Amino acid sequence: MRSINGIGLENVQAVYSGPEGDLWELIMGEQIHIGGLASSLALSAKAGDLKGLKGVDLCCCSGAGMRFLVRFCNVVGMTGVDATEKVILRGQDRCRQEGSSDKIRFVHRDVGDTGLIAGAADFVWGEDAWCYVEDKASLIREAVRIVKAGGILAFTDWVEGEIPLTPDEGKRLLTFMKFPNILNVQDYKVLLEKNGCRVIVAEDTAQFASHVDLYLDMLKKQLTYDALKIIGFDMALMQSLACEMMFMQKLAHEGKLVQGRFVAVKK
Known about the structure:
It is built from eleven helices and nine strands. By secondary structure, the protein is α/β, with parallel strands linked by helices.
């Protein structure tokens, strides 16, 4: 695990309560994760048939993942847990607009201490968001606690690739992204196994680099005005953000930053 001091939950809340969070949604869409709908479909296929099940989305943001599961996988009920009030309110509004409020509820809590009933969920879900959680050991313990025996944990996350980040690269990436730390695929596999899970899938999706290329291309060719508007037409800030994203692009193409995909079964 690669970590940095001085970044915690309050930094993440600031991002997703302000313009930076809106900027990420502009670039990546309502599903703020690498690969959007295609990635969600691939994860659900690896997780197995979710029809008729009830799940929990940890770090649910505005609930796009839950709306996907209800609409495309026929999940009958979802509970989303997130620590940022703004995205929860946005998510509740979007659920009302899409007519899914009866199947989706939000809980404003820390994902390491959700307050949810133990063993009540058929599965736990997450998409590219657990990288923001400082205590990943507590997160995994909580995910395992709230899922039933034989239940599924299915998630993707930004992880360090097979080629390690240098200390300077790690510090720069974590500072820009407001990640307190970042794991690799093996780190997550070990955490899952230590908490009584059988790991079925632990892999690199091999799609990170191409999508960062896409995001930068869109910002350059189509979304420049929209992005500037979100950040108050601050050209210096725009250039700084573009520079950091190009640095992230370099790490992705070097195999140092990837999207990991994981599916595990609670024994």
